[in-house]
Design goal:
The protein is of the alpha+beta class. The chain is 31% helix and 10% strand. A two-stranded antiparallel ribbon has the order 1-2. β1 and β2 (48-51) form a beta hairpin.
Amino acid sequence: MERLQRALKAHTVATAADTKRSFRGPAARHGSSGGGVRVKAVCDCGRNVRVVPSVLAQAPIVCGGCGKPFRIPEAVVAVG
């Protein structure tokens, strides 16, 4: 119960600091542009997420479904 109360308080503080009508996340409140272009990262079970490549390079993001890390698939190059 205590953890839930702390989380709710943190959420209230974070959203109250946002003077916009809509909640746009921490990047909007801290003046960040969002960190770059997100790309599709996949895991072996077929799930996918959108992530900035530099974030994925910092440490693996592990799939909760199969336990394997997400990866950015290699681009398929068409030979013509």
